[in-house]
C-alpha cells in the first residue's frame, strides 16, 4: 500500500469514528454552520463534538503547518481528506473568514509572531474575523476607499464607514483597509487588524432580500488603533501604506472560496434529485435545461479539481481565481433558478414548517449575492480580459 | 492523480504542438487538399509523418509495437489537430479503430496493426445509420453463412469511409433494431465484394461515405470480440471516440479563441483597438472561461477512461457536450468579432466554424450527450 492509500484508510477510519451522523446531513440553515469566536454557541452536541475532534486533529485547517494549528498535510493528503469528507457528506467543522481570507494572507505576509498568535486562534475557532473592505462610495472601485487613519505616533485614529461588512455584529476582530496616505491611491492604504470592541466601533445590521441579516454598516468614530500589540506584534499586515498588496492577495483567496472550487453542493449535478423530489416527470423542456445544467456542473467540478491541483504546484495563472469565481457563481445562480422552477409553488413557501423556514426561496435569493460579493462578475470579466487575455485598455 | 499533464505529457504536448503547427498547418494541409479537391480530404504523406512520430500507434499496446499510452496522450495529439484543423485519419484509425482492435484476437491485430503503426493504413468506424448519431439503433444485419457471415444493410456518414483500408462495422447478429444486445463488430477489408461507397464532401471539406453492404461475405476471423457480445466493445469504441472528439473540439475552441483575441489586439475602429471595447472584452473573457472548463472536463474524462473508472462513460458525455458548447461559442464569437473579414474564405476563422459544425455531429452532439447524462443520472 502506498503512503497515500495508507493515509486514505486511516482518514476513513478516523472520520467513521469522529464524524457524528448528524454532521453528515446537508446544511439547512445558518445555525448548522459553526463559525467559532467569543460569542459562538453550538447548535447541538454533535456539532460541538465534530468541531472539537477536528480542532484537536488540526483538521479545521488541514493544510496549515502544525505550529499554526493545522495538520500539516501535503497537497495530496489534503485532497484525500477533502475527497473522504465529501464521500460521507461531512460538514465543514468550522467556517470562518479567518480560514478563507485572513489566514492565507497572514501565511504570505505576516510576521512570525502574527502567524503564531492569529493563525492558532483561527484554527481553534477562538476569534471570529470580519472583513472591512467596501465603503458606501467604494465597491468595485475599492482602491478609492476613504476611511482614514491619522498617524498619532504610537497609534492611529481611525474615522470612516464600511458597508456590507458580513457578520460585523458577530465578529470579534476586523481586518480593515484604512487609508494612511491621501496622496497615494495604491500605496496609501494600510491593512489593519483591530478588536471590534475597541471604543468608537459600532455596527448596524442590514436586512437582505432573503429576509436574513448577515451584514452590517460599520462605523469608526475616533477609533484608536495602537501600532503594536503586546510584545511587538504590529497592528498591520505587511508594511504601512502597502496594504493594497495584501488586500489583493486576500481577494484571490476570497474569490477562490466563493467559487466553490473545492466541490461539494455547489458542483453537484441536480437533475436526478430534483426529478425525484418532484415525484412526477418534469416538463420535458425543464428536463432538458436540467440536463444542460448538469453538463456544466460536472464540467465545472472537474475545473475546480484541476484548478486546486494547479494552484498547489504553482501552475495556475495567478488571475485564475477570477475566472473560477465568475464561472462558479454564475453556475450557482443558475442552480437555484432551476431548484425554484422544479419546486414550483412549493418552493415559494416563505413561512411554513414544510419549507423549513423558507429554505428554498431564501437560499435562491442569497445566491444572487454570489456574483456581487468579493468582486462582481463584471469586475471578474474585466480582470480576465486584462490579466489573462491581455486585451488593451482593460 | 492531479488533473494536469505530468512532465512526460507536457513534453509530448510540446512535440505535438510543434509538429502540428509546422506540418499540419492550415495552409499546408486543410486548404491545400481542399483546393485540390482531394478525394480523401487529407494527405497520406502527413499520415506517414505522424507514424514516424509514433502518433499513429499511441494507443496500441507496446506488445503490439505501439507506444502503449492512454487517452490523455491521444488527446494531446488531438487537441493540436483541432487547433490547426489538421485533416487526418487519426481519430477514426488510431483512437476508435485501435480501441476496437485492442479487443480483437491475435490474428486480427497482426493483420491490421502493422499498417496503422507504419502510417500505411487508414481505418474507419461505421456505426450510425442516419443523419443523427444513434448507436442504440443498429439494423445493419450479419447472418451466419458457412463458417462466416453475410452482411446486408447500410451505414451513413462514415468518416474516411471511402479511403479506409478496413472499416469496423457494427452489425446486428440477433434481436431487433433497438435491442442493446445482439451486436457484433466486424473488421471489413476495403476490397470486400458487395460493399458500395457513395462518398460526399462535408462542410469542413472532410470526406464521409454512405456505405451499402449487399451480401458481403465475411469469414469468421473478421469478428472483433464475441459474436452477439459486441455492445461492450462498441461502448469502449464510442467512449474513446467521444473523448477524442471532445479533445479535438477543445483544440478547435482554443485555435479559434486565440485567433480572435489576437485580432482584437490589431483591428482599430473609432480610433481605438476593438479589444478596448468592454462589450467585446467581456464576451472574450466569458469565452475563455468556457474553454478552460471544457478543457478540464476533457482531461478528467481522459484520466477516468485510462483508469477504467466506473463513471468514465458519464464523464465522456459531459466532456463531449461541454467541448461542443465551448467550441460552438468560440467559432461563433470568432466570426462575429472579426466583422466582415470573418465572412471571407481567405481568412481562416471561417474554417474553424466549419470544422466545429462537423465535429459537433461526430459521435453525438451537445443535445445527444446532455440527454445521455440525464439518462445515466436517472432522470
Ligand atoms: C452578501 C454580501 C456580502 C458582502 N460581504 C462583504 C464583507 O464582508 N466585507 C466587505 O468589505 N464587503 C462585502 N460585500 C461588498 C461587496 O464586495 C461589494 O458589494 C462589491 O464589491 C460590489 O460593490 P458595490 O456593491 O458598491 O457595487 P458597484 O461597484 O456600485 O457596482 C454596481 C454595478 O456596476 C457594475 N460595475 C462596477 N464597475 C464596473 C466596471 N468597471 N465595469 C463594468 N461594470 C462595472 C458592477 O458589476 C455592478 O453590476 C458584500 C456584498 C454582499 C452582496
Ligand atoms: C456579406 C456582407 C455583405 C456586405 N455588403 C456590403 C455592401 O454592399 N456595401 C458596403 O458598403 N458594405 C458591405 N458590407 C460591410 C459591412 O457593413 C461591414 O462588414 C460592417 O459594417 C462591419 O465592419 P467591419 O467588417 O469593418 O468590422 P469591424 O468594424 O472591424 O468590427 C469588428 C468587430 O468589432 C466590433 N466593434 C466595432 N466597433 C465596436 C464598438 N464601438 N463597440 C463594440 N464592438 C465594436 C464589431 O461589432 C465586430 O464584432 C458587407 C459585409 C458582409 C459580411
UniProtKB/TrEMBL annotation, chain B:
Pfam families: Acyl-CoA_dh_1, Acyl-CoA_dh_M, Acyl-CoA_dh_N. Signal peptide: none annotated. It comes from the Bacteria. Residues 142-216 form the Acyl-CoA oxidase/dehydrogenase middle domain. Gene3D superfamilies: Acyl-CoA dehydrogenase/oxidase, N-terminal domain, Butyryl-CoA Dehydrogenase, subunit A, domain 2, Butyryl-CoA Dehydrogenase, subunit A, domain 3. InterPro entries: Acyl-CoA_Oxase/DH_mid-dom, Acyl-CoA_Oxase/DH_mid-dom_sf, AcylCo_DH-like_C, AcylCo_DH/oxidase_C, AcylCoA_DH/ox_N, AcylCoA_DH/ox_N_sf, AcylCoA_DH/oxidase_NM_dom_sf. Keywords: FAD, Flavoprotein, Oxidoreductase. Residues 7-120 form the Acyl-CoA dehydrogenase/oxidase N-terminal domain. Residues 229-370 form the Acyl-CoA dehydrogenase/oxidase C-terminal domain. SUPFAM superfamilies: Acyl-CoA dehydrogenase C-terminal domain-like (SSF47203), Acyl-CoA dehydrogenase NM domain-like (SSF56645). Its cofactor is FAD. PANTHER family: ACYL-COA DEHYDROGENASE, ACYL-COA DEHYDROGENASE FADE28. Belongs to the acyl-CoA dehydrogenase family. This is Acyl-CoA dehydrogenase family protein. It comes from Tsuneonella flava.
